[in-house]
Amino acid sequence: MKYLTIDTTTKVSGVALAEDGRLVAEGFLHTSKTHSERIIPMLDQLFTAAAWTLQELDLIGVVRGPGSFTGIRIGIATAQGLSQVLNIPLLGVVSLEALAWSCWGREEDIVPILDARKNEWYTARYRWAAGKEKAECLSAPQALSISECLEQLKMLNRPVCFVGDAAWKEKQQIKTVLGEQAVVLPDYQSLPRGAYAARAVWERWLEIGAGEQVEPYYIRCSEAEVNWAKKERARRGEEHE
What we know:
The chain contains eight helices and ten strands. It has helices spanning 35-50, 69-86, 95-100, 146-156, 171-178, 187-190, 194-208, 223-239; strands at 2-7, 13-19, 22-29, 59-63, 90-93, 109-115, 120-127, 136-145, 160-163, 182-184. The longest helix is centred in the first third of the chain and has 18 residues, at 69-86.
């Protein structure tokens, strides 16, 4: 089975072509350009380099969040468009779960951390068990303040391996709180990659064996939604006066 994966949940644009779980080609861009400017040229170059055509694809995979609200929408819209035009199944995977693949086989607890702004991280906790082809989720994805997340991990008193776009950026703070308990992988290994998404999508396919309706996974409301809710509450309050 040949498939394409798309990850635009952070400032990184990551795309990959894979066949039966085996990585064939990968594209990675971490520049000032927006995803809408990058994604189509990246896909065109990737297919040309791999000598594949869109018509050869059997499946489209997309990382559906959490992460950047705009990035999530761009990735899902692109994936849905290709899925509909090519009439092939679509699958979605969680960004934090995909990042856990960067630490395949490590003994520490794996903690992906993505910048959620407002001094918060999107985070979860995983662990690779011996002989397993998928990491076990120990703590479900959530948005936590940086201090709360680090204090919770400190209380576990276990080695922790950090990955994600916030890992290298916040390395000093992580090390200050957790000391030798923490391992922080360098950005070239811990940033989102098409290869990680390709593996996560393949495991998802083996799990359900069919396409699915993919919805954005935001965890929390966007700033626009929060402001709209505030205005609605104020308007209703005025109506009841």
